[in-house]
Every structure is written in structure tokens, then in C-alpha cells.
Request: fold
Amino acid sequence: MSTEHPNQFALLGQRRFAPFFWTQFLGAANDNVFKFAFTLMVTYQLQLEWLPPSMAGLVIGALFILPYVLFSATSGQLADKHDKARLMQLVKSLEIAIMAIAAWGFYAANVPALLACVFLMGLHSTLFGPVKYAYMPQQLSERELTGGNGMVEMGTFVAI
Reply:
């Protein structure tokens, strides 16, 4: 038996891993581009008395993190009890709906709608996190799992 570990980058060429990797990578990038664009809009374009530019980044960041505090345990239980692939499809469908509302929010310069979308994107990320880590052991062999986890972490940090 060989103790050699497979090249983790080879996973990017495999149908059982590549779509999953790019989905989580683009989701992380989407979260950050959305928060950054919204922060820029509130800081430099809009003049809001109730959300001063000096507080915008803090409020947006706090709203994004709040669902992690409130719903992490529940999202872990959902990931344990339900089909991982189906949960990912549902959560990613939720992301598309949230971003459609956010697109309207940017167009209309509707800050309350965008703040709600920040919270909902945090909820989306809270739901997706446990599912993505529960999904990998079902799709990767024991020898590939460390490399797969490393690829997902690398993708997340590059996207951020």
C-alpha cells in the first residue's frame, strides 16, 4: 500500500469535486464583493443620518456575523440530518434570491433592503458552512480528504 498522497490540485479536474469547489469559492467571493460594494455605497455615495460612514463597515460586518452566533448549532444539525447535496442546492438557490433582492437594493439605493440582504447572506453562509464540510467525506476518499479540505480553505481565503 502506497503512503503517497494524491495531488490535491488534481481534484479540480474531477466532476465530484470541481463544481463543489467553484461553488464555494464563488460564494465566498460573492459575500465579500457584496459587503465591500455596500460599504463603499454607504460610505461615499449616500448621506444617511442614521448610518454614518464611520459606522457603516462595523454595522455591515456585525449584521453578517450575527447569523453565525444565532444559527450555527441549528445549521450543523440540519447538515447532519439531511441530504448534503440537496441542502447545498437549496442554500445556493437562497443565495441567488438574496442577491436578486440586493441588486434591486443597489439600483433603488434602498439601504434597509441591503442591510437585510447582508443579514440573509450571513445566514446563507451559516447554513452552507457545515454542509460543505459534511459533504466532502461523502465525496472524497480518506486519502483525498486532507487535500480536499486544504483546497476548500485555500479557495475561501483567496476569495476573501
